Amino acid sequence: MKHAITLRIGPATFRIGSAWPQPIAELARLYAAYPDILGAIADFTVRLQPASRLRRYVRPSIFITGDHGLADAAPMSLAHGLLAAEMGMNLQMALGWRRHLLLHASSVEKDGRALVMTGESGSGKSTLAALLGERGWRLMGDEFALLDLDSGAILPFPRLVSLKNRAIDVVAQEVGETRMGPLLRATAKGDIRHMIPRADAIARMGHGAMPALLLFPRFGHDPAMRAVGRGEIFMRLTQASTNYVALGEPAFAALTRFVTGVPARAIDFPSGDAAIEMVDRLWEEHL
Amino acid sequence: MPDLDAIKAYRRDVRDAVAVCTLDDLVLLYHHRSGQTHMVISPVPEILERMTDGAELTAAQMHDRLAQDFDLGPREEAVEEIGAHLDALVALGLVRPA
Q1: ipTM
Q2: Interface contact B24, partner A, CB < 8 A
Q3: Where are chain A's structural domains?
Q4: pTM of the entire predicted model
């Protein structure tokens, strides 16, 4: 395609092509600190192409496609080109990655051990990971945690952190404007702004950590903490994985090992500060 | 589909093997042949355990095997319930008609 960039995030390499220059220029700025891998062979291709020939110029409209595509993906405005590229990369991972068990979860690391947080969109797992990443933890990823089938370690996938609506200001205040992407207004998920992870998170994106604690966070409730049964944990993690079925028995072995070996809690919290206090307390208790 | 009402005896074949993981009161069964993961509770794991020798047996014979270790209550009701479990396991592909 006319405009293209190759990016490595954790173990995965993406080649993103675009019919327009803007999304690629935005990616180049936001991923500037990631390793230079010019000429690397990509695991996945993402293509941002006009929804029709006319839509290249008139009310430009992006259709996201690539090695793996969704036939009914709705076209997006060119103003949301960065989001389209990020969604395209997520889609390739979710549909095509086979080297690890992919969990829809955020993760951070401290003392050589990983904290994994999983939940629906809006649960606060991304925001919490972003905030912890500024307060003594290493951000490993806000969207996908990769569970190694042999070692049981969690491997990082520290793409840009995608922040939505109220979380945008909370995190922007913490990290400063230079690490924030453009504000994308009124997307299908509301306002979205991306955050560049800290340099140490990017430099150590090849280093995994053994999981020590699993949390099911829930934002917007009075502080509460409860145990979760292991059957429920297993079920929720299979639902949070896009490739559990495809990986077969090694995934069963890796996930049962994770569920039986890693303590888990559900936490409700009204604010980021409250959540961080709960996380720090739980971490002390479990290490 | 086999006519489940007609099944009189059941057996497990080596090809029906599952990997088992117990999580509290739930048991996970990974079925090698289908790649499916089943979540089951008592008495399903106990029934499957008593079929690992591959021998053919009826619901009544399964009742007698289980009764060695458990108090199953009135025999007729228990046999009927065990038969229903065995039929369900046939439908899942974990047990086959003998």
Answers
A1: 0.85
A2: yes
A3: 3-96, 101-286
A4: 0.91
